[in-house]
Amino acid sequence: MARQVGRGLLAACVVLVAAVAACARATEALAPATPAASFANDAASDARDAAPAPSSPDAPAAQVADEPSLPVAAPAITVVTAHRLLFVDGDTVTPSCPAGSRTDQIHCLLALRYAADARAAELATSLFDATGDVAGVLPAETMEGGFRGRLRLVPELPVAKRRGHLEWVVAAATDFDDFFHRLDLPDASARAVAYRWRALGFRFMRSVGRTTPSAYASQWMVAYNVDGSLNRSAAAVRELLFHEIFHLNDAAHADWSTRALRLVFDGIVARCHATTACLAPYAPTSTTVRGGTYYAFQPDNGDAVREYAAELALRYYQEQRALLRGEPPLPRFKCGPPENARAWGLLVDEFFGGVDRTAACP
After folding, report:
1. Mean pLDDT rounded to a whole number for the chain
2. Is it the case that residue 23 has pLDDT exceeding 50?
3. Who's near 354: CB < 8 A, 6+ residues apart?
């Protein structure tokens, strides 16, 4: 489960050492579904339910899993993948585009998919042109929702009254591009950022009669619920998507969080269990589950260390973004208990090239 995966010198997915072509197999089918999948669920706009990571045949899985490998430093969605993202079984639209370049064919597919809403077509095309992302739909499926029972998810194109969700996704993707561009360091000693935030598939859907999950992520795809309880503002969607995209990168790094952060996480839980007051100094964000505790430590939520890591990545983004934009600085998470500094350093080194623009702790 989850909180609801360039410009300049940075590429969207690059290696820590330029000579090493490895971003954990950055392909359209990079990661196995189980560790990559994550759900964003909430019982209210400011709290999340917990739900198990998908493991059953009915759980969401990669929809774009059998494409050839792509260059690591320049991930790109292929025409075949774009077709799968944009058109699903039961569509009344029959896509037919003339031969041409990859860009021309994807432009054609986008125009066909969004033909009923010119403004939405413009947004989807601008998103693809700017970041390589493709905004499509999720095929209908039934999800095993843990204690919530079975959830029916159906495709929902973000057009007309739903278009605002597409606008929020476009704004978030643009913000991430700007963030990583600003994060880049000009000196030759700086390491590259081993993180992919571009060339992703966004699959819009709605849950029948429910508002959960708000989103889930798997294999370079983020499914987005237009009725999701968290998806109520541009800022909320932006942070939701950063959390989700981290899950994709975590899986791409061979499920890094379960290895690197296990001792830190288990030590905190052994000390505090699920006691919110005890966990407060260790929680990367303030998000809590209604009737539970901080989302980063919520029990019965799959392997919760993955959620701790995603919330930690979100906190990194929040702190760095505030500084890069000249906004008032946030309290430095790393300056809390020693466990915070340890986890922070491991995350920054693994995913963000060791770049931490926040001031050193006293």
Report:
1. 82
2. no
3. 190, 191, 348
- The whole-number pLDDT of residue 34 equals 31
Which tokens sit at 116? 């009923």
Alpha-carbon separation of residue 7 from 34, 183, 189 (angstroms): 32, 11, 19
Cβ density class 109-147: b for 16+ within 10 Å, e for less: bbbbbbeebeebbebbbebbeebbbbbbbbbebebbbbe
The secondary structure element, H or E, covering residue 218 is: strand 215-218
The answer to which of 49-63, 210-224, 340-354 has the lowest mean pLDDT is: 49-63
CA atoms within 13 A on the CB side of 312: 29
What span, in angstroms and rounded, lies between the C-alpha atoms of 26 and 15? 10
* DSSP-derived secondary structure for 45-93: TTB----PPP-STTS---SS-------TTS----HHHHHHHH--TT-S-
Q: pTM of the entire structure?
A: 0.81
Distance linking the first and last C-alpha atoms of the chain: 35
